[in-house]
Amino acid sequence: MAHTKILIIGGVAGGATAAARARRLDETAEITVLEKGPYVSFANCGLPYFISRDIQRRSHLLLQTPEGFFGRYRVQVRVNTEALEIRRDTKSVLVRTPKGEEVLPYDKLILAQGGSPVIPSIPGVDREHVFTLWTIPHMDRIHTFIEEKKPATAVIGGGGFIGLEMAEALKARGIAVTVVELLPRVMATMDEEFGAMIGAGLEAHGVHIRTNTGIAAINERDVVLGDGTVVSADMVLLSVGVRPNLSLARSAGLAVGASGGLTVDDTLRTSDADIFAAGDMVEVVHRVHGKMVRIPLAGPANRQGRIAATNALGGRMTYRGALGTSVVKLFSATAASTGLTEKAARDAGLDVGVAYVFKDNHVTYYPGGTPLALKIVYELSTGRLLGGQAYGESGAEKRIDVLATALQGKMTLDDLSELDLAYAPPYNSANDPVNVASFIGINHMTGYSPLKTPAEVVRDLQAAGGLILDVRTMGEQSRAPLADALHIPADEIRDRLDEIPREKPLYLLSKDGFLGHTTLQVLKAAGWASVYNIAGGYAAARWTDGWRFSS
Questions:
Q1: Catalytic-role residue among 43, 45, 63, 182
Q2: Pairing between β-strand 76-78 and β-strand 30-34 as defined by DSSP bridges
Q3: Where does 451-541 sit in CATH, by number?
Q4: Which tens digits make up the pLDDT trace of 504-545?
Q5: Where are the domains of the chain?
Q6: Per-residue pLDDT tens digits for 43-76
Q7: For the domain with range 130-240, which CATH number is right: 1.10.760.10, 3.30.830.10, 1.20.1740.10, 3.50.50.60?
Q8: Which of 82, 226, 342, 458 is deepest in the core (most CB within 10 A)?
Q9: Is residue 45 among the annotated active site residues?
Q10: Is residue 176 within 8 Å of residue 352, measured between CB atoms?
């Protein structure tokens, strides 16, 4: 009886998982993994932490070796082997090996080639002190350069995950770091106020941030930015994006989707019935809005590899899509998100509501609490949760994991408000920030406490006028006064109603939205009709374009 030949192209994340899964399902299958590079099944998400020296031993990043794969799974792993051509008519793949070219047959083929860093076409990009970080050899080259050349300054092109993780890593090595981001904010996968918070947090740790400009040229000891500024750079790291590796699939005539990823169905089968694919190279369904997207993250890649291998061996597992849940450590803080941002939800044409919570990660009377910023995005017509973002020194990832689970279960604000989450003073408040955010959203949806986001207030004031009523305490207002606002502390509102105009819309600004909510109820009871609480108050508005607080 012939044994099924499973050929897997790509030996990291999805490919390695597919190989292990295939062996568990079929002890007799002939499983071969082809890896273009010299390493298989390495922890690419851990590379920055070796540079920072948080991970001391390089071997800890090598999750498996070809010998280990064979010993445990009887999987043939061929490193330094590049797939050159998929011959669908003969079900074979032409490969280039250190010993020359050969042709390998398959019954089922799994593509897991991932992506590659985008290298911009700028003068000096090929200099020896210019790096990307994607593989073990990339990491080794950076580490060796730092050890031997002792660079004092570094410029990082790109303010996404890898760029910001490497900013922390290089600072840990005693290098002065400047991050250059073409967009107005770093961490563009999150909404603008979170990008601004993250940028401020990085600057507080000594990282220089330059936005709205890019790297125009790289010289021996500096870089020239698009605005003409010259920045010292003994080394340069480029992290401006990742492109899926699709040349092999395209040349084989496999369908590619509008998002730029390889087209697969819910079994991860490509347009060829005998070819499956997983990981960064495929497009998948976004579980919130149902559109096809690319989500190049390790978690989805590993789960996809498991499913692709199952179905390649005749099983029937389906992949229902991803949420894009992500988390990143940035010095002492954590930034995390799941589902749709406010911008992405609005771009998708959804009717969007937003709620913010700014509070300590646990009760204020227990020592050691740290500020946590949480934002949820929901659908106004149904209360359905659409996404969430969090930033703080403790508890951000916990809340985002709760929201990711809620998104998976298609939960609404009413569901979130009833979540029975763990509470004790060292860990939480009796009402978790997730609960509180849902209360705020429900209050808005029912009309009990109407909200306007800081960005909406800016647009409304420009379009139709109105007045900002600043209800912060005297101390809060004096530390960051706002021009052209009427300041009456919340505790004095009842005694000073005659100072507040009735003929124009009122927008209530408090420290974090809470006193705006309570003041709104006082004004509604006193007959004010057009009054809105500014979502998140000063804590959100300070990071929003169009707001100018003095210091």
A1: 45
A2: parallel
A3: 3.40.250.10
A4: 999 999 999 999 999 999 999 999 999 999 999 999 999 999
A5: 5-114+243-312, 130-240, 332-445, 451-541
A6: 989 999 999 999 999 999 998 899 998 999 999 9
A7: 3.50.50.60
A8: 342
A9: yes
A10: no
